[in-house]
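Predict structure. Chain length: 186.
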Amino acid sequence: KSLDDLKGLKMRFFGLGAKVMEKLGASTQLLAGGEIFQALQLGTIDATEFGNPAMDEGIGLYQVAKHYYFPGWHQPASFLGVFINMDVWNGLSDHHQAVIEVSCGDKVRDGLALGDFSQPAAMARMIEQGVNIHYWGPEFLAAFKAAWDEVAAEEMAVNPEFKAVYENYLAFREQFAIWRENGYLK
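Prediction complete.
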C-alpha cells in the first residue's frame, strides 16, 4: 500500500534489481526457480519476482502468492541469445554457422510471438484461482526509478564495462523514444 511496506519484506530477487529493493528497505535473497514455491509456502520469503505470468503459473506461484504486481520494472525484457567461444565459432564451417544463426533467429521470433501470446490466458487462469492483479502506483515507480538511478551511478563508478553498456543503452533509448511515443496507441 505504501513504500513503508517494503521495509523488512523478505523477497527473492536477483541482480541489480535486488540492490534497488534493498535501497528501499527490502531484504533480498537469490533462490533458484525451483526453490521459490517452497520458500513462499514455508514463509522463508514474503514475496518474489520470477518470470512472466506463464512462467509464474507454471511453477504454481498462484497457489502461495495472491497478489501480483505489474509492470516488472526491473526486467523490461529478457535476453534471448546464445554464447559460443569465438575460436569454436571460427572453426565451424560457413554452413554450420548459418544453421546456428537461422535456428537462433527462429527461436527468438517464436519466443517473442508465443511469449506475449501466452500471458493473457495465464493471467486469466490465475485470477480465477484468486490472484489479485495490481499496478505499481506512481509513488512506487518513482521510488524504483530513483533507487535504480543510485544503483546505476554506483555501478558506473566501479565498473567500466557496465558504464559503457549503460551509456549505450541510454543513447539508444533516447533515439527510440520518438517511435515509443508515436508508434502505438495509448
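Summary: The mean pLDDT is 93.
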